[in-house]
Amino acid sequence: MAPQGCESVMALVPVPNEEILWDSQRLMPELRNRILRFLEAHLLPRVQDHIVFEKQLPPCWYGERYALAGSSAFGLLPSFFQSAMFRPQRRCPEIRGLYFTGASTHPGNGVPIVLLAGRFAAEAVVEDYGIPQGVPLSYSDVAPIA
User: Fold this and answer.
1) The whole model's pTM is what?
2) Alpha helices of the chain — where are they, by DSSP H?
3) What angle do CA 9, 62, 97 make, to 5 degrees?
């Protein structure tokens, strides 16, 4: 990504979703300046002097690209009643056979946690319906492709 002899830096700033969020387009310049001031003070002195190319991706970019409700890349708002056990669980209580997984479900967001949520949903399907025929039970049961 970076030109020859240069490096790439990305700063991802978690912000509230756009359903409750301020005007993110208007505040992007201030967020940018705060991040650069922090980087210069603590990690990368004079980083602004070395910027060759810059691209800002506001929350709406993620929302449009990934069809995220309210442009919420991190799932539900991380308030007390939308965290841990208060998040939607793996089984839908109203519809048998409907399972949930993802950043807004229990146990929470972040790639490792979302993968764990996927495992929980898969385990719920197996608990409810048994193991489908021909589905490997673990990585050790999967043969490599020749």
Assistant:
1) 0.55
2) 24-42, 59-66, 111-129
3) 125
